[in-house]
Amino acid sequence: MVKWSKKYGPIFTVWMPKPSIVIADMELLKIALKDRAECFSGRPQSFLYGIFTGHKPNGDGIVLCQGEKWLAQRRFALKTFRNFGMGGNRMETLINFHTNRFMKQLADCIPPNRFATGVVLDIHYQLAFCLGNIINDLIMGRHYEYGDAEFAKFRELIDNTLKGVASFSMFFIDSYPWLRFICPRYYSYCRDGFEIQKFFLDEIDRHETTMDYNKEPENFIDAYLRDMMETGDENLSKLTLALNSGDLWTGGLETAVTTIYWGIIYLIHYPEIQRQLQQEIDLVLDTSPVSTAKRNEMPYMRATLDELQRLANILPWHIPHEVNEEVILAGFKIPKGTTIMPQIGAIFFDPEIFPDPNLFEPRRFLDQEGRYVRSEYLAPFGLGKRSCIGEGLAKMELFIIFTSLLQNFSFEAEDREHKPSLERNPGMTSVPTRFKCRIRRRRAELVTSEHESSKDQAE
């Protein structure tokens, strides 16, 4: 995409099969998605997603609906997460609770007689379990115990659905729906998608029959049901709540898991960066628990997390927008209903903005004095009103979990011949190939937060 933007300019048209406008310039993206958000905040309606919404004209669910329905969902979600302490102490306590469980699960894999040599394992399941339970607590007010079969089944359904919707066969079905009659994958996609929807609808029914409407809600589902009852807003419904829950669960889990998983890969390929991070952790934290209050004292960690999000480029194609009315951008007339494809990933790999863009180099986010410098060209959570509503949660998760991992463990290649692959698998997200690595304990005593024994303080 970087080559296309250099050849055709910062704004150009592709046919998929309908004409779509690609914007690969940060200034134009800011104009479109922030300054002119009312014009550019629509969503193109997808046949594949419409299967689960009844093909409503303006869609459904917080990610893919538009118009007044979307505004109502976004307002509610922002208000609710703010009430839950998004970015504050309450949210940090919840993240610490599940991060501590994650650290203990990894530590239990390394017996005392293996501290020096470490063990070889794939941490993907434990990582997904940690992040999935954070989302579960926020949405449903409950979490799973390690190894729970329901959690494993639910993850499998999510994975299958994401792989299905990202496949070439489903891309063609989305453009030419009649092809669904000759494509077996379409039927498995529908089966898995409706099973996910039923999971959330059943969960909503349980909450509806057991929640105490006189108490302040402590999770997203309870808060939504209470708002439905009190306001009678026609934009709020149980189906929409189920879709919102699925959107939040998928968006909040898959992107964070993939980012941290890439982080371990890059640390193995760049061991000097891992050592520098651990030196900073030891200097600032020593054996104290990780706290976001110390984040500003850890410029190298902040720079590394920015570089990780840039290079991992988790959403190479950000979710498309649609213009709500005819508009002119950069001298080009864009008709109403045109799909807009924000290509933020092309900016991340533009050598004129980020020299040697394929190298993992945290120092690009530090000044000459070693102070952290935020780049205006880094926007992994999107821009404007359609930016990720969970940005505050995601940033806190990345800092706490990644720092905790490096405070307690070191990561190496399984052996010299088996470094994790840097190749990206095709799909909606830039998913790395699964891998095993050697994990060593850095200390005899695991460093965990003071909140390790109870989640009650987060409630």
UniProtKB/TrEMBL annotation:
GO terms for cellular component: cytoplasm. CDD domains: CYP1_2-like. Coiled coil: none annotated. Keywords: Heme, Iron, Metal-binding, Monooxygenase, Oxidoreductase. InterPro entries: Cyt_P450 (IPR001128), Cyt_P450_CS (IPR017972), Cyt_P450_E_grp-I (IPR002401), Cyt_P450_sf (IPR036396), Cytochrome_P450_fam2 (IPR050182). It comes from the Eukaryota. GO terms for biological process: organic acid metabolic process; xenobiotic metabolic process. Signal peptide: none annotated. GO terms for molecular function: heme binding; iron ion binding; oxidoreductase activity, acting on paired donors, with incorporation or reduction of molecular oxygen, reduced flavin or flavoprotein as one donor, and incorporation of one atom of oxygen; steroid hydroxylase activity. Its cofactor is heme. Heme binds at residue 388. Belongs to the cytochrome P450 family. This is Cytochrome P450. It comes from Acrobeloides nanus.
